[in-house]
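Continuing the series of single-chain predictions for the mutant panel. This is the parent chain; the variants come on the following pages.
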Amino acid sequence: MTDPQPPARRPADRPAGHPYAVLAAQRLLPVLRSADTEAAVRRTTALLAAGCRAVELTTSVPDWAAAVARTAHLEDAHGRPALIGVGTVTTAAQARAALDAGAAFLVSPYPAPEVREVADHRGAVFIEGGFTPGEIAAAVRAAGSAKVFPAHVGGPDFVRSLRAVLPDAVIVPTGGIRPAEVPLWLAAGATAVGIGGGLPAEPAALAALFAVPGER
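Parent structure:
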């Protein structure tokens, strides 16, 4: 018989600078799939200047590790260290490269045991992807968090059902969600919502998006 897993720690129980706590406060996680490295760096810098602290760069960005290395040391508009995560991490080699470049957290689109192994070995935060309740529960048991992907298929009601049985989990639905729909997902129980497109380019509008009451 295996030993029971300890209960997951709630985001509020984490140190203020821990990625889970930051995501819980920020409520929205930009997911960048830029066409080139320079575009990724520019967009990340603009997000940080708008008050966004956690940003996810995906491995679909050409030379993504260089983009991570160039932005991981930056600060947001409030002087807080940036938390640059790497998404679409599916192999051990990608996980090691991301952490070596300075990534603050890793994200996969589906269960990725070899990424989890690297994260465990390096003491890194890993938000593992899943779609079925079993996959999501397994990710939560392993690290306290899960990315729900593709989220639009199940909709907010699916997240609401997950939250009922995983009350302390960090749940980050991603995929097919527009910025205007974020409040629906948060009301359903999402810790934060991954957004891959539709974020405003105008600085003031972008800053307004991240000026959440009670976040600072």
